[in-house]
Structures are given as C-alpha cells and as structure tokens.
From TrEMBL:
One of its GO terms (biological process) is methylation. It comes from Gordonia amicalis. Its EC number is 2.1.1.-. This is Class I SAM-dependent methyltransferase. It comes from the Bacteria.
Amino acid sequence: MGFVVPPDAYGRFMGRYADPLAEVFATFAEVGADARVLDVGCGPGALTAHVLSRGAAVTAIDPSPPFVDAIHQRFPDVDVRRGTAEELPYDADEFTHALAQLVVHFMTDPVRGITQMARVTRPEGIVAACVWDGPTGALAPFWDAVHVLDPDAQDEALLSGAHRGHLTELFETAGLRNVIEEPITVDVVHPTFEEWWEPYTFGVGPAGEYVTTLDAGARTELETVARGRLGDGPFTVSATAWAARGTV
C-alpha cells in the first residue's frame, strides 16, 4: 500500500510528523533507558532513532525492503528484519516493550498483529500503538480538500484505530490488560504551501496513491482547493493521534 518507496520520499511525506510524534509516543509508552524495545513497522526509523536517543536497546522490523535497508545504513548496530506484525520472527518474552507507531491501521489483521506483539513481550511488559485520528490527524487537511471535489473518496478515517476506542477494543481483544487510550498531538509548521503539498505527489500511502490516480487537470484542481483552504504559508498542522498501551 504505497510504502515500497524511497526512504527520503517517506521522510518528506510522513517523517515531518512521525519524528516529533515519536518523542511524545515513547513517553506515553513509558520507554526508559533500561528498555528493550521492538519497533514494529519501523519505517525509515523515526521511532527507532528516538528510542535509541533515550539509551534503550532497539530491534526493528518492517515489510518494506527500502525501509529495512535504510535502517541498516542509518543504524548498523540495530537488528532489523523484513517481516510483518502478524508473523513476528522472535521468541516469546524477548522485549520489555513492543511499539507500533502509525502501523496498526495498515495491519492485515490488527488483532493478530497486536497478539504477536504481546507474545514477544515479557510478562508485565508494555505493548503500545498510536494511529492518526481520522478527522484531526496529520492527513486530515489533505482529505478535507479531496472531499470538496470528491465527497465519496475513501479516506483513512475508517482504518483500524482511527477513532476513539478502536485501539482499546483491539488491545483488549488481543488479551492485553490495563489498557489506557489517550490522544497525543504534535504541531508541525509548514513554511510554504509547496513544502506541504509536494510530498503528496510522491505516491506514499493511501493519500499519495490517490493523487497518482488523478489526471493533470484533476491534480491541479485539488492543489488549488487545498491552497485555498490552507493559504500560501506559513501555516501549522496540529496532528492528533490516538495512543493506547496495555500490559502483558
């Protein structure tokens, strides 16, 4: 789903939000320097980088070959593998924390993925995940503009975890205890409209794939509507995610 892309393209598209989100999410997940963390769906490494900065040990996994290669190059000492949340290639009880940042909504089977995360986490360890809120997440301004022109376009608001309570339901179904779910928010300043818009043309994720389906005229029309709503810049996108953590 639009994630076998150059890491730089992903970084310009989502890294601008994922990097600051990683700090807030790691705090929510109670990651300390003594933690041993599994970063599930690590992407090019936003969360991995922040967890390492806290002094914790990190193991990472992602299904995208370019992202796995990027982690190898960026963090040569990190054990990073290609794989999915639903089939984690680790023994039981290996980690103190299993974290999934902006991943659950793209899992083929979210309950199985979270169950696997719990399996590889030690008793009393923490499983945590965060997902952009549908109406107020990082991609909401884009989809709001899309819906002006294409009201029936399927956005990312219906994906797993994208509304209050969805993550809690998934976590509890996966057998986790003491589940807490809270909104976490990051504010990202975009200096110009072009800086905000261009990464949507890179084909990353559902939003990028939507843009690639448009002909030149429709793409220009969408860009014009978005500019009319956001302005030429600078402007700030306040991006809210739902975050949940539970105990094994």
